[in-house]
Records
---
Amino acid sequence: MATFLLAAGPPLGAVAWDQVARRLQSQGHDVLRHDLCTAEPDRARVGDHVQALAEHIDRLDAPPFVVGQGLAVPVVMGILANRKIPGLALINGPIDTLDPFTAALSRALVKPALAAQTLLQPDLFRRFLWSSLGYRRLVVNPYVMGRDTVVMVTGAAFSTAKRREALAVFLHDLPEHLARPVAQTSAPTPTLLLWGDDDRLYPAHVADRARASFEKAEHVRIPGGRHLHIIERPWETADALDAWVRRLTGDADAGRGDGATLT
């Protein structure tokens, strides 16, 4: 079967993929993870993350299917101009523009070291993530993701001052990176836009609009899925990835267990 390389966008750590990874492994796939929350501040710009991901791929015996969620989407998209891979999956993230919340945060992080000491303090930021005014209402389904889950999946990004500074560097660099056109190679890479259709940060029409940027793309919706459906609906997410790979490889069992909607 296939090898998947999963990357979640900060502030989510690799642990956010736990249930998706287990489901994919039960379907016979090999699963690896790439953690964007462990970079040093001087290696935290989007281009640095693209290079680190490319080096990760180079260490493997064969190129994997690369999957990026949230703010990892610009990073995994950078692989299209750097490495040949069998497929790229993008999950609810910025393709050509940032959501208003992240864009405002990016503008505020003009001094990353100061941001790490103040704005991105773990207690302060997690209180915001959980507040009814912020992340909880926009992104988190409170009936599925409790406070402990939020703390767990964001723990790596806020664990040290250096990691908080690296997060600030990454967020501040994002707008400039997204201003560049999507890189295309001579041989188009099959691309899956796997979107939760109830995401308020990056609504489904973002994926519909983005299809024109890729020469070989399909859009699959997770019914009722929000921004973090990799955590809230992990089996449906994994089944959609499994079905996509089976369609690409011509597997006779393509689509088994797939509760997603292909558009």
---
Amino acid sequence: MFVRIVKMTFDASKIDLFLENFNTNKEKIRNFDGCRLLELYRDKNNPSTFFTYSYWVTEEHLETYRNSELFKLVWAKTKVFFIEKPEAWSVDKIESLL
């Protein structure tokens, strides 16, 4: 399983707009071919910082999503709310205990 983690810090006055955009598109992202899980987290110490975790079957599935019209539309609406440059990590899931 391939995991993509993205850290995003927003202008506090734009958080509701970000969440509205996320909520409008989360099912489409989650149901994109190859996406197995989508999670959104909010930092407890900095409420303007959010993280997305998305689980993909392969890196190619993520790249297909990143080149899709859906991603372009979601990202265009999201990036205008940033106050810091987003950070992203690509990791391989080694183990998970539930």
---
Amino acid sequence: MNRYETKYPIVLVHGMVLKDFKLFRAFRKIKDFLLKENIKVYVTNQDGVGSIENNAKQIKEEILKILEKENVEKVNIIAHSKGGLDSRYMISKLGMDKYVASLTTLSTPHRGSKLSTKLLSMPKWCAKFIAFWVNLFYKINKDKNPDILKLGYQLKDDTMEKFNQEILNSPNVYYQSYSSDLSNKKSFLMFIPHLITKKLENVSTDGIVSIESSVWGEYKGNMKNNYDHAQMVGVYGTNKTLEEVSKFYLDIIENLKQQGF
């Protein structure tokens, strides 16, 4: 058996905004890297700005197809950012706990985002105006049910507190999480967002999500090399950086294999 071949296929779940765009594709080179290692890996393509409930249903449909295609009982999910919340909801509320062996979340805002809370303090007419154009853009780019305004409210820290009280971990699923910290690292794309989110959260972030908010299940600490929120899904970076990020995923997969997943 291949060194990295897990018992169950790997499903990479993207977060909000980034999806299967031509130029800014989530996991754009990571999947190819993993395939070269003969790993069975899939990438979901749920809505970029859909609500948690909406995206959970879409991910469920994709995973059921993967199970049928691979003729397996379960999958291992590695989810980035808001994709971790979609996956948690799917597992706990849509009867998918029996089909998911493990859920690994990368910089998922499990405890909400003060950035989202701050942005939604703008006048309602302004928020609705911006939401209209964002939803239209994603509708053109094949989102089925874009709703950036609802999503924004769902990601507020007080809303996520209620979410965590209702969406409980399944005893049938292994949960683990990673964070990232830009406090000692410069980021081309996330330099300004890091300054803003660090001030709002009063702790360091990966440019979007704080370390504290990323913790869920068995916390594994910061990602090796502390990539920013976009780098960790291969959206941009040098060939060296993309290879380093891909190897990080390989380490996760090797660990899942060692645990029998």
---
Amino acid sequence: MRMTCEQIAARFEACVTTLNRLPGERSLGYASYWPDIVYTPRELAGQDTRPLRVQATPKEIALMEEALGWIHWVNSAERKLIWLRAYRTPWRVIARETGYPRTSAQRYWQGALTKIAQRLEPMRVCAG
């Protein structure tokens, strides 16, 4: 089954979402020696609850790693277009950042996704 350009673009958007769900870096060697603050139940009731951070699942990480492997099949200008669009950057901003006219940026982005789709096709045939 051949992946369409829309499916490939959706995979890169999912890749961005997964990257944002991964835990951040922790610097080793730094510690706080201040005592922990113990709040009373009344103080806890008045505080805002922390937003729940959803962690990435192993399946999402595996799909992300696969999509990251595809990015090496295109040149650096196409990579920039793919990532800017995966972050849902508006085309007007992309055109300003890359120096391409808006319609040309869209065409180059579509061409980069098509290049990836063409590289994926032989893999699908050989795997089956």
